Structures are given as C-alpha cells and as structure tokens.
C-alpha cells in the first residue's frame, strides 16, 4: 500500500517537473526570456531524470529528458503524408508579385487581406501531436512521402514535446492527431561555429545553413543532431478543419499559444502597398537577422478564401513566395587555376577570397573557357563582382576596373596540361583548349573504359568498376598498360569492398582468367577499331573506318599532313586537325609503340581478291547518307572495294538499293520491282563486318 502511494506521488512529481521544465524551455528557447537561471533549469532536469530512472514505468518519449538521451537511433523510415506537403510558386521580382496580386484581386473583385511571413531558408518539417504529445516528425521528401526524423527532432530545443494547454482549447477534436508544419533551420552563428569546427577537424564545410540544417536533421545518430543547435519556425497546419481558427493570422496566434516558435516578423496587410513595403523592409533587414531568409511568403489570410482558390499540382494558388533579387558581392580574384575535365577540356576556375553571397560562401567559380576570361576582361588581382541567385551556381560578373592593380597582366591559358604537362591543343573554331595526351591522369578513366567498350576493342568484362580499381591501385595508367597485366595482378585486384567478415574482396581467379582471354582476343581487332578505341576527339567508328580506308597503316597515317587527312572523303578539317595533333603527341606515340610491341598489327587487314564478300552483287545508292556524311561516290567506292558493282539506276538486276535520307523515285521503283531496300545503318554494317547482306540476315 505504502508502495502504491509512493508511486503515485512520484508520478505526480514527474508530471509536474515535466510541465515546469517544458515551460522554462519555452521561455528560454522560444521567448528568449528565461525566468530561472541555467543552473536551476539543469537542476530540475536532473531531478526529473533521477525520478524517471527509478520509476521506469513512467518513462515517456515525450519527456524533456528524452531530448538528448534514451531512445535508439532509427534508420529513416518513409512516412506517407496524410495531407500533401506542397511547394510554393515563386515571384522572382516585384512585377511577378504584383501580377499575382492582380490575379487575386480580379478573382475576388477586390484586394483581400493577406499575411506576409519571412521565407525561412531551412528544411520543411511536419510535426504530429497525438493527444497533445509529439509522436512524429517527418521531412517533406517529395511532398507525398517524407522521412521519419522523430528521434532527431525531439532533440531540437524549441520543439514542444507536449502542446501547451492554452492551445488545446482551440482544437476541435482532441482525439484526432494534429499535424503542424514549418521550417527547421540553423542560425547563422551556429552555422559558422559548425564550419569552424569542421575546418579544425579537417572535415568538409557545409555550403550554407540550409544544407547544414537538412544534413543535421538526417543524422543517423541523434546525439549529433542534438549538438547542432537547430531551431524551428512553425507556420502551418495540415488540416485547418480541426482548429477553431479561420485564418492564417489566427492560426499563427494559436500556434504561439500551443508553445510553438512562431516568427515575430509577420504582418497582415489590407493594402497592396503594405505588401510591397514589407518586402522592401525585409530585404533591408535581411543581413541583420540571425538566420537566413530567401524571400517573403504572401498568403491569402482567410481559410475560406484559400479553399476557394485551392492548389495546382505542385503549389497552393493562395500563396506566393517573393524571392529576393540575386545578391551581388565584391571580392578579390586571387588566382585563375585550370581544371582538366574528363574529356580533356581545360576549364579556367576563379579562385576567390571566400565571400558570403545569397546565403552561401563562394570561394570558386567556373570561368568556362579562355574566351570568357578575355571577354570579361578578368585579371588575377582584380576586385570582381560575384553574383549568386538562390540555388544558382555562383558567377563572376566582371572586374571593377578602377581597383585594378597597376602591374596586372592579361591572363593566358597555359600551353601545357596542368595534370600531365603535355602540350594542349585548341581546335579551329572552338573555345576550349584540350589535353589530348593518352596518359593524362585526368582523362585516364574515360579513355580506359572507352577502349574496352563493345564497339572499340570489345574487352568483355572490363567494366567501369574494374577499370577504376586498376587505376586506383596503379596497375594501369594508359591503354597499353592493359596488356602488361598478369593473371595474378587481376586475381588479386582489391575491389575496395569488404565481405561480411570484414575481409577485402578481391577480383578472383575466375574473372581474372576470363579477362586475360578477352584482353588477348582484343589484340586481333581491326586497325579501324583501334583508331576508334583511342578516343581521338571527333573520331567515331565510321570516321575511323574512312581514315583507315585511305591510310591503312599507322605508319602511313602518321606521315599524313592535315591537308592530306582533310582530303579523305568524309573527313573535314576539324577531324583532320584532331587526328593530326593526337598522333603528333609524343606520349601518344609511345603508347602506340607499346601496343605494337604487345602484338597489335596496326595495319588494316587487306581484303584478299577472290574473297570479296560483295562479289556478284549490284547496288544502287539513293538519298543522302547523313549518318556517315559520305557522298554517294565515296559510298560506291567502299562497296566496290568489297567486290560489288554499283549502278546508277534500278532494274530487275539490282540486288539491293541503299536508301539514305529523302530517297526519291529510285526507292519507289525498287519497291515496285521488289528489290530489297537497305538503310544507311545496314550499309555501314556491311562495310564494318565485310560481309554480304544475306550473311548478316538482312
Ligand atoms: P521552395 O522550396 O522554394 O519551393 O519553397 C517552398 C518552401 O518554403 C516550403 O516547402 C517551406 O519549406 C519553405 N518556407 C519557408 N518559410 C515559409 C513560410 N513562412 N511559409 C511557407 N513556406 C515557407
């Protein structure tokens, strides 16, 4: 009996302590007006914690002690939103905002009151309370399905774990869960502190407070979330039918009564000019706010009027987000560095003194190509204007010439690749400089994958993952290295994964054996395929064949000048220059020499006379061959080289008519006479496989 009384007393005290602590949390975190000292608050919390540990039967996930302890971290389970979480339509300038107000005005026949709120730059959150207790916190996700982040959100200090009783009176049906919505965000100060800490620990910095908030919210370990100092502003309810409020303005008042953190900078406007004034005011005070905002949300106040307007597929018609104009800042252009992309393109990059623009720190910005640097007249040492609009990539607009240092010089693209040091080339009429060296590490992976691909050397099984590991372990750097690999090299290749026992996974003998066979087989591929496999810019499969047809060996091809190459039917100046600069590159010459040593013939297999696969067949060509770009004469030559006869007109004796684009009367005649028709694709296949159409099942 005594036991029972003790228990009841304990329960009562636990309840009281919880209410008291929640009340002080609210005063401290929401109101910013604490009534007791931090020490007294901590002491209350400790008392509660001790009692809960003694009377485990009263432990409750909504207890304030559970904000930073207790429950087990969850994986994020999907949550189906009972009411969809919509996005907002944007007004990118005041004209668009006025246009929206015009629409509203013409719909209602007058200007109806609106509520203007700050657009908090954080992450959407939905909080569900059952019987007054927080039971679920979910992210927006795609609007229909979000993620359950309840455990993490419980650690956020200004989220009430229980609805304050003052608010409960306005709920129509207390038995139905109440879902409120708002934004979870990180203050500028906490964001900076977090990034300073990250820098100290050598970890990557967060780009902006919004990303930091979203990232902190989705931590697997809620202790981490607890340390991140997140806050919320709540501004919506999923189903307004369950509260007595009839407008957004009343809703905000009710949310305050419930203990939610509601942004104080809200206005109810009865005139258009008040909306515009508020937007202007917010833009001016934006920098002085302790958190990031990216605009103002204007909402029709009356719920009845909101319902009348309804939603589009993605956003409410009764609200609009006026986005602030892009922010511009000035900073120092410290350097222009050059990056080598995976296609060999050299991209100049502006290295800037880090500057905060539109909510994130900008330290680098692409300058696209050297023409762009010249056009913008940028020099190292310049003070430049940097712009960033919302989520858009930062952009260097141009220099402030009056601040240009006297000794500055125009910038020039380096003539050698910053990654491998070989000479870079610029093609006629192109803005981009490129590295064409076969052993440039920046390009290696793409080249190695391309070489092994089906239409090139067709090394079965040599996919991206294996190539990545071969590169990472230093076993292969260029295509000739493939042929130095031993079976043991491949079998022992560390795939950078571990099995269940935590042991590293190796490629293994079975795959290694197969790859060795495939590598060996690839040495017998035609010279045209090798040329294509080298990944020379602009040299596709058909072009490679055209080139090899004119220059059937590497030796002959290497001696050809740009003029000679561009005289090959179907090969223009751009291709000719690309092939020429590729073959003139010393590294590439060395790689080709090594391929030859490995057993590559690098000579076109000559089709023996008497073995001519198209012998006895007569072809007629019509229409234009757009895919290969060959003229009909060139195409005829290629057919004749394989033993075919080529005729200018269709008759019963014609074996096949090859129809390119816009084929005319010859096609009709062939159809009338029942002569089989081939497409350009099929024609190219005949050339490629050097077999008669019938052999190829055409
Ligand atoms: P956006 O993501 O640009 O389509 O903007 C829509 C998002 O703005 C919403 O999903 C909310 O997360 C966020 N938001 C921030 N502040 C407010 C606010 N006061 N009212 C409504 N939405 C807001």
Q: In brief, what are we looking at here?
A:
It contains 25 helices and 24 strands. With 698 residues, the protein is an alpha+beta fold.
Measured as a percent range, the helix fraction is 25-40%
- Mean pLDDT, all residues: 89
Largest sheet: 7 strands, antiparallel
Treating each run of at least 4 consecutive H or I residues as one helix, how many helices?
25
**Number of separate strands:** 24
In whole angstroms, the N-to-C terminal distance is 96 Å
Bound molecules: adenosine monophosphate
Gross geometry: elongated
Rg from alpha-carbon coordinates: 36 Å
The class by helix and strand makeup works out as alpha+beta
Q: Strand content of the residues, in percent? A: 15-25%
